[in-house]
Amino acid sequence: MSLLERTSWTKTKATLEGNTKEARKTRQADVQPKPCRITNSSHTPMPLDTSSYTLAHLRLDGRRWNELRRCHGQMSTQAAADGSSYLEMGNTKVICTVTGPTESRRAGGLGGAEAKIEVEIGLAGFSGVERKRRGKGDKRTSEMQHTIASAFADTLSTQLYPHSTITINLHILSQDGSLMAACINASTLALIDAGIPMTDYISACTAGSTASYASNDEQADPLLDLNGMEEQELPFCTVATLGTDDKISVLMMETRVQLARLEAMIAVGVDGCKQIRNTLDGIVRQHGNSLLQKTVT
Question: In what order do the strands lie in the sheet containing 116-123?
């Protein structure tokens, strides 16, 4: 074999060996799994998909349209008061104390033939989203005080305590919707704890609509027990009933509502008041059982 033939054979052999090595590397790369590259996605967060809430007809806090928030209450929380209670409706928290019946504050202790009911509401500066204090002359606070006093004046047996005063003090620790309803329910528990006779429970809750006042949506649905965010966006009202009947003792409108939607809102509110009454009755019975156990032991 000549020198030229040997040189060409050597180049051909090297080329074949190189192709074989590259083929082996390619097969090994195909067999071995490629490592997964993890990138930091903190700079580009994925948006929250809320389509499931829309399909399931759930609200922002996961409730359905006719569901109440968690309601928790206690009685006899203040030993110095004649009657006291603590109530939570969702994140709305209220402390209520009742003093009386006491001698009337009028000159000479002269009063009417029935006891006078006075309501005082104090809002903590940290209770709302904005850290501010409301004075006694605040319009909304004054309306709430007058409404609560009028509601219980027709329910309590005030004729048994002439020339006297019954004072209801409400302290708002946290506001997250249904404030008026929480005040009424807390007052009911505190008055029962004070032993003042009343015809039946006054239970309250809020009801709203899924469409705003300016919207012409004919398929707007009613909502039960609105939270703070819902009250800022939607029309709502506060409904309070006496006992298990559909007798409405309080109907307070704080927003503009179309008349066509009002009937459905009131119906949902009355149904919610019945559920609240069962909750209040359970709190009273539990407190009574605890007192009986202490007496027996």
Answer: 71-75, 83-89, 92-103, 164-174, 116-123
Sign of the CA dihedral with 53 first, then 56, 59, and 62 last: negative
Question: Of 189, 106, 183, which is closest to residue 147 (Cα–Cα)?
Answer: 183
CA distances from 226 to 16, 72, 210, 246, 258 (A): 79, 17, 11, 21, 18
For the chain, the structural domain boundaries read: 70-296
Q: Which amino acid is at 274?
A: K
Distances (CA, A) of 12 to 3, 9, 297: 14, 5, 106
- What's the CA gap between 44 and 254, in Å, rounded? 41
Q: How far is CA 184 from the centre of its chain?
A: 15
Contact 214, 246 (CB under 8 A): no
Residue 175 makes CB contacts below 8 A (sequence gap 6+) with: 92, 123, 127, 128, 228
Compute the radius of gyration of the chain from its Cα atoms: 34
DSSP string for residues in 140-167: HHHHHHHHHHHHHHTTB-GGGSTTEEEE
Q: What is the pLDDT of residue 22?
A: 56
Q: Distance from first CA to last CA of the chain, Å, rounded? A: 119
**Cα dihedral 248/186/285/240 (nearest 10):** 10
- Return the CATH superfamily for domain 70-296: GHMP Kinase, N-terminal domain (3.30.230.70)
Question: Where are the extended beta strands (E) located within the chain?
Answer: 71-75, 83-89, 92-103, 116-123, 164-174, 202-209, 222-224, 236-242, 248-253
Please identify every stretch of the chain with a pLDDT value under 50, giving residue numbers as ranges.
3-4, 7, 29, 31, 33-55
Q: Is 107 helix (H, G, I), strand (E, B) or coil?
A: helix
- pTM equals 0.78
As a whole number of angstroms, the distance between CA 85 and CA 72 comes to 11
Which residues, in sequence order, are CB contacts of 133 under 8 Å at separation 6+?
123, 125
